[in-house]
Amino acid sequence: MLAWIIIAVALPFWQQSRAVLVLFYFIFLPVLLALCGLDRLLQRLRRGQVFSAENLASLRLVSWMCFFAAVFLLVAACLWPVLILGAGGVGFLGLFVRVVKNLLAEAIVLKDENDLTI
How does pLDDT run across 86-101, given as a tens digit for each residue? Predict the structure, then answer.
């Protein structure tokens, strides 16, 4: 996350193209929020809290931020068509995280039922 913030501060000094700056700053917030969500998820996993509602919320945040970044990349593909590949990759990543979130939700339901069984 620190590297992402450093790039955001230093990019105007490296890059002179306004289009690149606008694209980066539109994608900056979703990527930063996704990284924060992943960090919180990993902290809870280290503590042994695997099946929790907070982990579901973190995965949901990550998947939505992937979808937002994919939309921004699709819009930027009007200027650089190669970004369609990036948008497809980020969109697929969002779908993959969403599937994992749904699997975790079902696992939480099964764990809760198992905890109530004598």
Answer: 999 999 999 999 999 9
- Provide Rg for the chain, Cα atoms: 18
**What is the per-residue pLDDT across 99-110, written as a single tens digit (0 to 9) for each?**
999 999 999 999
DSSP state of 52: -
Residue at 58: amino acid letter: S
What is the rounded CA–CA span in Å between residue 19 and residue 2?
24
Helix axes 18-46, 53-76, angle to 10 degrees: 170
Residue 46: half-sphere exposure toward Cβ, Cα within 13 Å: 6
pTM for this predicted structure: 0.84
Buried-exposed string 27-37: b where 16+ CB fall within 10 A, e elsewhere: bbebbebbbeb
Classify the C-alpha dihedral 108-113-116-117 as positive or negative: negative
